[in-house]
Amino acid sequence: MLLLMSQLEQMYASYSNYKAKIAREVEKGNLFKVTRGLYETDAHVDGRYLAGCICGPSYLSFDFALSEYGLIPEGVCWYSSATCGKRKTKRFTNRFGNFCYRDVPSSAYSKGTTLTRNGEYTCVMASPEKALCDKLYVMPPVRSVKDVSDMLFEDLRIEEEDFWRLDLDALLEFAPYYRCNNLNCLMKLIEKRR
Asked: Exposed, middle or buried by CB within 10 Å (0-12, 13-18, 19+), for 193?
């Protein structure tokens, strides 16, 4: 269970020094520091359920989501998440994993995510189409349909059949919100194929 410092302060209010009590609980392995002011009681919780609490609001996306959906062949060692308005990339490492947060445009932020629950934990993740748009947004700019095709099928190593099985209407819906050339070229690629 995730606990805020204020909750721990209330739990240990009867102790003369609640901070020392928290430190002892961490030493004993009863509490695990997630980030400043946030602790977890379960040593084995999947990091995906903590990602949104470490830096929020955020949702899992980019390479993490693309790998989860089997679109890219690589396994990933970072829980990569999209944020809005943070203005810089943030990284955190703790016993639950490595966490990375990158901005996407505010106009695109609230589109195409799903919430899943696992007991008391929740996880918000981009759809495959949204994760791909987020990823293309943060990649170096391309100038043509051929360049974006190379980016998809050579750089990211997405299988062409897998790409064309995506919800193309969703891609065309999300892409304009990013206002970037990579997504403009993606739209042209899709429209050229139709």
From this structure: exposed
Give 87-97 pLDDT, tens digit per residue: 899 999 999 99
The residue assigned the tokens 């629950």 is 117
3-state SS class at 80: strand
Residues of the chain with pLDDT under 70: none
Model pLDDT for residues 25-69, shown as the tens digit of each residue: 999 999 999 999 999 999 999 999 999 999 989 999 999 999 999
Contact between 84 and 157 (Cβ < 8 Å): no
d(CA 191, CA 145): 10
Map residue 123 onto helix, strand or coil: strand
pTM of the model: 0.93
What pLDDT was estimated at residue 46?
A: 96
**Spatial contact of 102 and 136, defined as CB atoms under 8 Å apart:** no
**How far is residue 55's CA from residue 33's CA, in Å, rounded to a whole number?**
14
Query: Which residues are CB-neighbours of 94 under 8 A, at least 6 positions away?
Result: 32, 33, 34, 35
Query: What is the torsional sign of CA 54, 59, 65, 66?
Result: negative
Exposed/middle/buried for residue 65 (C-beta within 10 Å: 0-12, 13-18, 19+): buried
